[in-house]
Specification:
With 450 residues, the chain is mainly beta. The chain contains four helices and 32 strands. An eight-stranded mixed beta sheet has the order 22-23-24-25-29-28-27-26. Strands 1-32-31-30 form a four-stranded antiparallel beta sheet. The protein has a four-stranded antiparallel beta sheet with strand order 2-3-4-5, with no helix packed on it.
């Protein structure tokens, strides 16, 4: 099994953590047993974007955008043009009658936006007179426009022409954008979610109006995602998780996640100070439409969208804050952390008899704003008995710095990027061995060796 190969990492966890989270050399459910290190960046790599089934782009603090072949690990293009770090990146697909072409849009701290052709590496369009840096990008393919968010909210067409804009009066600016039904979009700004509607006039001109401000979070919003066509979710720095109706923007469920020390640990350790804010801050949200996975401090928290009940959690999933998550299936998930690890998890039934869950962990699900609870409340006993556990099934150790995010390419493997300036392409070792054997067999057959 692969171990630490790219540099040492001091043990950062106590005996209590290691007894829970250590996994042996034999990891039968971890198929990522072969890796390829991809070099080319000179600073922290923060973003990965899939271009198509065989290509992806990486970007980070060095201002470079690199295009890679996910099958071979070959670097295909090097996109240079930004003078400072990349702050956001997305793809923009332009559909014509018989063909479609995918471009890359990047934003940078140099207060510019760029449109790139990943096939040639050329910068097709650039805008360099922005008043501030762009923090997030959103493509509205149905309207053939894209949106940039920061201190300003701007709507652009496919030719990089400004259609409309709105100035935002906030120290943080807009940090996240998602598309909503009926030509609407949601923008996270500090503790609020602003709802905008785009209107196309008879002369094909585009206008944007703010129609709602959702002020139900008590702290800065750290995550904003689409769950289904009719639902979206948001998470805050204070551990608040809210499920929203995407049509009328009402609260459907509210959860205040509070990590509470277990009785055993409370006896051996007396806490003289309040928990660190990072211990309950939601760093990342992901979903498969059925479940929502929240990265909360160094832990993971899973609940069902259908039943609005907790299905599994792991208070300490990593040694440091979790930065990115993904649900691979209804029972498998993945996470990466500041501690440099990438971990695979499986939702399993609790062994019997199970240790009682801490009632202070749970908040009350509510179905209206008037019923929202500001503090934790105990769950029904039946809800607690239905809890399942997250079992560690794989530990991908290869990075020597914080793993910023990862992207799955199915049979072609997994790509991770890190503060160590590296990307790692993880492969199914057994499958790759079969492919090499098949290629060798075909070559021998062609040469008359068989």
């Amino acid at each position: 099994m692969l171990r630490w190969i790219l540099g040492g990492r001091e043990a950062q966890f106590s005996a209590e953590k290691s007894s829970v989270l250590c996994i042996g050399e034999e990891q039968p459910k971890n198929w990522f047993t072969e890796l390829q290190v991809l070099k080319g960046h000179f600073d922290i790599v923060r973003f990965l974007v899939q271009i198509d089934d065989f290509r992806f782009a990486s970007a980070g603090d060095d201002g470079l955008v690199l295009v890679w072949n996910v099958e071979t690990g070959e670097r295909l293009q090097e996109l240079r043009g930004h003078s400072q770090q990349i702050t956001a990146m997305t793809t923009f697909t332009c559909n014509r009658e018989l063909t479609s072409h995918t471009s890359l849009i990047t934003a940078s701290s140099d207060r510019s936006l760029s449109l790139w052709d990943p096939d040639t590496g050329n910068r097709v369009q650039t805008i360099s007179d922005l008043q501030s840096s762009v923090k997030c990008l959103l493509v509205l393919e149905r309207l053939s426009v894209w949106v940039s968010g920061g201190e300003e909210l701007c709507v652009w067409n496919k030719d990089f022409e400004l259609q409309c804009q709105r100035q935002n009066h906030s120290d943080t600016g807009i940090t996240a954008l998602i598309e909503l039904p009926k030509n609407c979009l949601a923008a996270a700004m500090d503790t609020d979610i602003l709802i905008y509607r785009l209107t196309i006039s008879t002369k094909s001109s585009l206008s944007m109006a703010e129609i709602r401000c959702l002020s139900d979070h008590q702290d800065q919003i750290r995550g904003l995602i689409n769950v289904t066509d009719g639902l979206f979710a948001s998470g805050s720095h204070a551990g608040e998780l809210i499920l929203w109706d995407a049509i009328d923007w009402n609260i459907l469920a509210y959860e205040h996640i509070l990590w509470e020390e277990s009785r055993s640990s409370a006896q051996s350790e007396i806490r003289l100070t309040a928990p660190k804010p990072s211990e309950m801050s939601i760093q990342h949200l992901s979903t498969n439409g059925k479940l929502i996975l929240a990265a909360v401090g160094s832990g993971l928290y899973v609940y069902s969208v259908a039943t609005k009940t907790v299905v599994a959690y792991r208070k300490v999933a990593h040694d440091s804050n979790v930065l990115h998550t993904a649900l691979l299936s209804d029972s498998e998930l993945m996470s990466c952390s500041e501690d440099g690890s990438v971990r695979m998890w499986e939702i399993q039934d609790l062994p019997l008899p199970a240790e009682p869950a801490s009632p202070g962990f749970f908040g009350m699900w509510s179905f209206s704003r008037s019923n929202k609870q500001t503090g934790p409340a105990s769950k029904k006993e039946s809800d607690i008995l239905n809890l399942r556990m997250l079992e560690l099934t794989g530990d991908l150790i290869g990075h020597s710095g914080a793993v910023q995010m990862f992207s799955s390419f199915g049979d072609n493997g997994l790509v991770t990027c890190s503060a160590d300036h590296l990307l790692i392409l993880w492969k199914d070792g057994e499958w790759q061995s079969r492919l090499r054997s098949l290629a060798l067999f075909e070559k021998l057959e062609e040469n008359g060796g068989l």
